[in-house]
Amino acid sequence: MAGEEQVRGAIFNIQYFCVHDGPGIRTTVFFKGCPLRCLWCHNPEGISAKPVLSFSAVKCIHCGACAAVCPQVHTVTEKRGVNRAACTLRRACVEACVTGALEITGREVTAEEIARDVLKDRKYYENSGGGVTISGGEPALQGEFLLALVKLLKKENVHAAIETSGFAAHEVFDSILPYVDLFLYDCKETDPARHREFTGVDNALILDNLRRLHGAKANILLRCPVIPGLNDRDDHFQGIAGLSASLPNLTGVEILPYHKLAASKIERMGLESQDEYEQPAPEVSALWIKKLRGMGVPIIEA
Question: What kind and span of H or E run contains 14?
Fold first, then answer.
């Protein structure tokens, strides 16, 4: 790819010193845009490919600075809020806000800009066996940008992990395979009909890509989010067991219990509310793991 350093893409966050997104100390880059609509989405700010205005009412001090530069969008009365339909994301209000109540979530960057940023922590990666994890949203939705970034990381000998739902064209995964050290591959639901109900898409393409990557000897950690009342079912656990047995070269299987971190994000960005599910107690998660291990699943605990 000519000029891959200048390939542009959309991200919504970079988190440093992460320890749960692959081995060692890592930097996680969150790509914006996702083709799935999971009922329990933990990163709703990553669903849209476009920037989103974020407003935190608890940080607002009624100073009126935002309304002074953008009166048609911002209100600073007792009913503090923003008129998102009128917002053109000019950022003037964000610059005027002294408390950080207003932010724009999402920005366009080049692959080179991201690489330059994450390489500042190269020594932490080398000392801990860490690296960079690309998450989302869905990274594979921005295939050209993703390929450009993992190529740059490979040139610098930085361990690259991709967190993916697997819902993208085969060609995207074929292109990035030589440059990715670890695939953190989601298995959200094994029943096809329920997968469509829970995520909005069928799982046939996802499973096909998983098997293709496995056949190509990719390093894959299968990650299974478990949401009480949705997929904490014995038949789903049996489906995970059958899937892992058919993929004997998996690095392992990790269980991701549901958490409620998305609720505050949804409120700040004025997104459509989603159902909240019960956050499982540690002993409940331990029972899931025990059950899956009893089925022969090679569970890895974070």
Answer: strand 8-18
Q: Is the pLDDT of residue 232 over 70?
A: yes
Radius of gyration for the chain, computed over Cα atoms and rounded to the nearest angstrom = 20
**What's the pTM value of the predicted model, to 2 decimals?**
0.92
Check if the beta carbon of residue 17 is closer than 8 Å to that of residue 131: no
Cα gap 137→270, rounded to integer Å: 18
pLDDT at position 1, please? 42
Domains in the chain, CATH or no CATH each: 4-49+106-294 (3.20.20.70), 52-105 (3.30.70.20)
Provide the 3-class DSSP secondary structure of residue 178: helix
CB 53 within 8 A of CB 84: yes
pLDDT above 60 for 17: yes
Q: Which residue has the higher pLDDT, 88 or 193?
A: 193
Ramachandran class of 294: left when φ > 0, alpha when ψ lies in -120 to 50, beta otherwise: alpha
Distant-in-sequence, close-in-space partners of 241: CB < 8 Å, separation ≥ 6: 292, 295, 296, 297
Per-residue pLDDT at 2 exceeds 60: no
- How far apart are the C-alpha atoms of 15 and 24, rounded to whole Å? 14
